[in-house]
Structure formats: structure tokens, C-alpha cells
Amino acid sequence: MQAQKSQTKSMGGYFQLHLANGREYYPDLIKLNTSRNALQYILEVKKYTKVYIPYFTCEVLLEPMVKLNIPYQFYHIDAQLEPIFDFEVGSTECVVYNNYFGLKQDAVKKLSDTVPHLIIDNAQAFFSEPVPKIDTFYSCRKFFGVPDGAYLQINSDERLSPENDVSTNRFSHLITSIDHSIEHGYADFIENELDFIGNEIKSMSSLTQAVLSNIDYQVCKNRRIENFTYLHEKLSSINELGMEFPTSTPAMLYPLLISKADVKAKLLEKKIFVPTYWPNVFRWTTQDTLEYKLAKNVIYLPMDHRYDLEDMAYMLAVLTKII
Ligand SMILES: Cc1ncc(COP(=O)(O)O)c(C=O)c1O
């Protein structure tokens, strides 16, 4: 037994990148390369014939339907960012709902009880636990410094057998930004994002899993809760976003709606980068829709585990000067 082991395992030589051998946050879920491929996995296993998907979501989520030639239909959301059901879900059809910014876990629970064939997109809600028996997927790089990776819960015993992904060539932006700056790594980040288009379903790479096993999730979660709570205390009175905000939430970002032009550009001048969710919504909808306004006017403030309350106070001071 010992002899056999020494034949397969190399010993000695140089050291690997040293990572602590910790625990992933969702060790028991299926580990894949991207969350769009997690959706494809669900569609392949469940053989749905039509997908209802929100107008307010990321365009890459259409990839699986295009690949598998499955028709899809967009639906609108209301001011609480919850689905407007002006359609009926057929017996072989499914509904994708996005747990927006990690703020909609109560809606996810409610919909889980009432909507048949529900698929929860938790790409923006890493810390929202999957509801038992509800197909749910996560995208790891939206929350942590990994180049790829997704988790999937699927309510089926059937399993696909994808080959292992390799992430070695996707780390450039993650490490360049340490030696240089976030700005230095930006072009590589964009290249990495484009590289995911059209990829087949693969299992999460060993390297991504190793990094994900090296994160102190409790610290990350607490920091997000603290930052989000602080921002909401300071900004709720001017926030025109009509939805209810949950308390104590390890959210993705803080969404702020204010009637003032050019705030995003002015924040950018001060090196506070706020994303647009999602540029495709401008093509999919018209200016009078809620989705268009969410994409155009909401400022998504960073508040993740990289920052503490001092950073939040600094960001608020910059913002206050602008508005
Ligand atoms: C809400 C949402 N879901 C899913 C995805 C796709 O994630 P991935 O790039 O891991 O496929 C994105 C964007 O990339 C997204 O914004």
C-alpha cells in the first residue's frame, strides 16, 4: 500500500503556492466552472422546454438557452424587485429568479413555496443558503478573489460528468492588482470575463477550489453585514429605491437611487468604481420601464469585506460632496 502510494505521488522538489487547507462555504454542492453553466446543467438534467427569465439580469445567462436551443421569455419585476406573474408556468417550463444583490432571500423563500420549477440565481447572493429542494446556483468570483467557479444545488439524483477545468491562466488580474493596482489588472479582468463566453460545462478547477478553501467566510460575511448596515443607516432617508431592505444582510453591494445625474462618473473620477447592472438591459427594455431605470440610475456602492467602517465613511464623504 505504502509502495503504491509513493509510485503515484511525487515527493520533494519545489513548494506550491502555500494556501491553508480550510473549508469551502458550500462543500456539498456541485462544483462547476461558471454559473451560466450551472444553469445549463439544470436545463440539461430537467429537460425544460421553456425558460422565463427577468429583463433585469445579465445577458450571459441567455447562453445556455441559445446553446440548447430552448425558447426563453422575459418577464418584468415590480418595485420590490419581485416577478410580475403575467404568464403561466407550464408543466415542462421553468422560472429563473435573481436574488438581487443578496437582498431578496425572503422573496426567494416565498417564491419557493408557490412557483413551480423555480431556479434561483444566487450569483449576487453568495451567503444566501439554498432553500431545500430548490435548484440554486452561485458564482464565486462575484464575491471573492477567484478567477471562476460556481456552485450548484439541483433537486435531482442525475449527475453529468464534466471534465475538470484548469484556471492557471486566469489569475493575471488577481495577482497583478496585488503587486501594482486594481487599474493595472483591469484589462486582464475584462479579457478573463470574455473568455467565459461559450465555454462548456466543466468541474471547478482544483486551483479555484484551493483558493476557496482558504477564505475566512465568517469574517467576510460579518464585514459585509457591518458595512451594509452602516450605509443603510446613513443613506436610507435619501434612497429613492422603493424596495424594502432586509436588516443584517451580507449583501453584494448597496443599491442607492437618487435623482441626480452623473454621480457614477464623478465617483469614478475619485476612483470609486461602481458597476452598471446590466448594460444589456438598455437594449432589452425601453426608457419607461423600471428595469431601465435600475440599470441607468441606481448607484451600486461597494461595501464588501475589503473595506471597513472607516472606508465606508470616506466613501460617504466623497458621495456627499457630489450629491
Ligand atoms: C445575476 C447574474 N447571474 C449570473 C451571471 C453569470 O455568472 P457566470 O459568469 O459565473 O456565468 C451573472 C454575470 O456574470 C450575473 O450578473
Automatic annotation (TrEMBL):
SUPFAM superfamilies cross-referenced by the UniProt entry: PLP-dependent transferases
Source taxon at top rank: Bacteria
Protein name per the record: DegT/DnrJ/EryC1/StrS aminotransferase family protein
Organism this protein belongs to: Pedobacter hiemivivus
